[in-house]
Specification:
The complex is a heterodimer. Chain A contains 8 helices and 20 strands. By secondary structure, chain A is of the alpha+beta class. The longest helix of chain A is centred in the middle third of the chain and has 27 residues, at 242-268. By secondary structure, chain B is mainly alpha-helical. The chains are: A alpha+beta, B mainly alpha. Chains A and B meet through helix 1, helix 2, strand 4, helix 3 and helix 6 of A and strand 1, helix 1, helix 4, helix 6 and helix 10 of B.
Chain lengths: 425, 293
């Protein structure tokens, strides 16, 4: 039977965007708390307030390791602060079973004038340990932090690397929590130190009952966590199995990127660069089509990619010659591929004046999950005269729901491991 | 491999903590229990913080402990000057005026240290408060410890100066610690009242020194007690009056004239310290919410 260690029910928390007003609300809230006026539940948003967390429900069982991911400002840190009891919920209920420790503020309470050794005692006390407990472990901390020679020097003489190493070591060695909250703390120091930190954390995980990890390092989350929660705008978008969660998150960030790019081109225009010669052929629009011929801005890795280009032609053309090219998100590389209706493959001869749509279907586009841009050119195939040529800001996303993939090229792969027998005569 | 496959099934009874929006006052017994538990577990942290702040303060200061009494000393010199030149006419005091003003300034400075400590400690600890769940009582306690430490330096200097003038506190020295602690606690009380608001609004921290300067003039610190008129009423109503007078009397060998008043004020101070400790406890999560993470 699995035992629930953390249980969160209908949890909501409001924040205020305006500082002056926020302070005033703070004052009012203190009054409410002191006179215990209501049940304390705050359903209504006051002016300039928004839900930083909105109706969060989840449970963690003994042994769970949860990766918390979301964009900046999604509500991850707020959730951790609520779980840690630093701030109060506005609605809902949190039940924590066990001693909670948070590795969040490394080196909190460090005084720069005092020595490393003195600061270990101070930091240890802040984390709730007695002098005796610190005495027992101080050598281990100094050893872990790799700052033996500097331990009796004032902390202000430390490099920033030494500073965080010491902060991490104190917390990592001293804390023995049942529930551990980690907020972006594993990326500390050089590689050797990071690996050591990782090992230490895994020891912790095997001893503690539950762990919540906030990190932007998705690989780390994939390896360490068995569950993932994706938060966006204060709401849980996904909670469950970690592999699926990471794909969910990747897709979410692509949606946001696409949205902001598309907003950009509404604000700043569709073209980054365009050359047009007269009005013989006029470009109207381009985009992606799904199977139902609806205009979309995403495609799956294993789906055909269908690009359309709408144009108007005023004079009859003996030979229309199109080129489409795809660029990656940074737009800093060469085209990932360039395609055209080569002279003999798909010729468009003697096109009469009117409105037209060209549809190109890439049966296997081979693009890895990511964001891409489309550029086009329209020419006369007979003499290579250029009618219209544009670098657009139309972006589309390639998504995967299979597994995590990076790079720019999609491929299907298989792996195997064999031992090389060198004694084979 | 997920971690739960590797875990040995530990059987322990876990403390259960529940967070809800409900005011903690609705469960007063539970609140009381946490308050005293936190005070107890916070005492070692308070001690550490005190040692940290005192040693950092003196390690970085060339003048060292002189800073503990330089302000009241300057105040004393100013008032002796004003009085001796006749710019300000101060009434008759039983003690020689320089001693009167010196004891008054020193005792007042102890009180002021107490007033400033809670907000100062909480402000400095903001980053810690925003991120770590440590017993918040430790900050108050550490403020009290530091006020006592700096106060003791002042008292030693006071006793030396009094001895130079041939004044001995006599039996009063035995009682003086009561007055000393009541100075510290009365100051802490005012500081504690201001802390929740001072953490939200920086105006509080700026206004306190100015207001306290005025407050000093209606307390027998540099002026003796007026005999008649509305000023006399004001001095008498002021709860700091019996504390300052009693402390000075015990220190200089006089028998205190306001002993009953002194003890009633102290009872009230203790009562209100408890009340505003509750307020501080309740307000803390709300103030932290308004600080940056």
């Amino acid at each position: 039977m699995s035992e629930t260690v953390i249980s969160v029910e209908n949890l909501s928390k409001k924040f205020c965007r305006d500082l002056k007003r926020s302070l005033w609300y703070g004052l009012k809230d203190i009054g409410k708390e002191i006179f215990a006026l209501s049940s304390g539940e705050n359903f209504k948003l006051r002016k300039n307030e928004f839900w930083a967390l909105d109706n969060i429900n989840f449970e963690l069982n003994r042994g769970d390791c949860l990766g918390l991911i979301g964009r900046n400002g999604a509500g991850k840190t707020t959730l951790l602060r609520l779980l840690n009891g630093l701030i109060k919920p506005d609605l809902g209920k949190i039940t924590m079973r066990g001693r909670v420790s948070a590795l969040i503020a490394l080196g909190s309470g460090f005084n720069p004038v005092l020595t490393g050794r003195e600061n270990i005692y101070i930091n240890g006390s802040v984390l709730g340990l007695t002098k005796k407990e610190i005495d027992q472990k101080i050598d281990q901390i100094i050893d872990f932090a790799e700052i033996k020679d500097f331990i009796d020097a004032p902390v202000q003489s430390y490099s920033s690397g030494m500073h965080v190493k010491l902060g991490f070591s104190i917390a990592a060695i001293l804390l023995e929590p049942d529930i551990l909250l980690l907020d972006e703390v594993l990326a500390v120091g050089d590689l050797a130190f990071q690996n050591k930190a990782m090992r230490r954390m895994n020891e912790h995980i095997s001893r503690s009952n539950a762990l919540i990890l906030v990190s932007h390092n998705l690989d780390q989350i994939r390896i360490m966590c068995n569950k993932v929660m994706v938060i966006d705008n204060g709401q849980i978008l996904y909670f469950g199995d970690s592999d699926k969660g990471l794909i969910e998150y990747e897709n979410l960030s692509k949606n946001h990127r696409i949205k902001s790019i598309n907003k950009d081109f509404i604000d700043h225009g569709f073209f980054r660069y365009r050359r047009v010669d007269g009005d013989r052929v006029i470009f109207n629009d381009l985009g992606l089509l799904n199977n139902q011929n609806e205009s979309v801005s995403e495609v799956k890795v294993d789906e055909p990619l269908r690009v359309y280009l709408d144009f108007h032609i005023n004079e009859q053309s003996e030979d229309l010659y199109f080129t489409l090219s795809i660029l990656n998100e940074k737009k800093d590389t060469d085209c990932l591929w360039v395609k055209s209706n080569d002279f003999n493959r798909f010729p468009f001869y003697n096109v009469q004046p009117g409105d037209y749509r060209v549809i190109v279907k890439f049966i296997e586009h081979n693009l890895a999950p990511g964001i891409y841009y489309i550029n086009y050119s329209i020419r006369n195939g007979k003499n290579s005269e250029l009618y219209d040529h544009g670098f657009t800001d139309f972006a589309f996303a390639v998504k995967s729901d299979q597994h995590f993939e990076r790079g720019i090229v999609h491929s299907v792969d298989e792996w195997e491991l064999t031992e090389i027998n060198t004694n084979n005569e | 491999m997920t971690l739960h496959e590797t875990r040995a099934p530990a059987i322990k009874t876990f403390q259960e903590v529940i967070y809800t929006p409900e005011s903690q006052l609705r469960q007063p017994l539970k609140l009381l229990k946490t308050m005293f538990k936190d005070l107890y577990t916070g005492r070692e942290l308070a001690w550490r913080l005190t040692v940290r702040d005192i040693s950092a303060q003196y390690r970085q200061a060339f003048l060292g402990i002189v800073w503990a009494f330089i302000l009241p000393l300057a105040n004393t010199v100013a008032w002796i000057f004003l009085n001796s030149t006749g710019i300000v006419q101060v009434g008759e005091t039983a003690l020689p005026y320089p001693l009167y003003v010196f004891t008054g300034s020193m005792l007042w400075a102890i009180f002021m240290d107490g007033v400033n400590a809670p907000l100062l400690k909480a402000t400095v600890a903001k980053p810690m408060l925003a991120k770590i769940n440590f017993p918040r009582e430790a900050l108050i306690l550490s403020g009290i410890y530091e006020t006592i430490f700096n106060g003791l330096i002042k008292i030693i200097l006071l006793l030396l100066v009094l001895a130079l003038y041939g004044i001995s506190p006599g039996i009063g020295l035995l009682y003086f610690p009561i007055a000393f602690i009541s100075l510290v606690l009365a100051g802490t009380l005012i500081g504690l009242i201001l802390t929740p608001f001072g953490l939200l609004y920086s105006d509080i921290g700026k206004a306190v020194p100015i207001l306290m300067q005025f407050y000093m003039f209606i307390t027998p610190v540099v002026f003796p007690m007026p005999e008649t008129g509305w000023a006399a009423k004001l001095f008498q109503l002021n709860p700091m009056t019996p504390i300052i007078l009693t402390a000075r009397d015990w220190l200089t060998g006089y028998s205190p004239g306001y002993l009953n008043y002194f003890f009633s004020v102290n009872l009230l101070v203790l009562l209100f310290l408890f009340v505003f400790w509750v307020v501080y406890k309740l307000a803390m999560p709300i103030m932290i919410e308004r600080m940056s993470a």
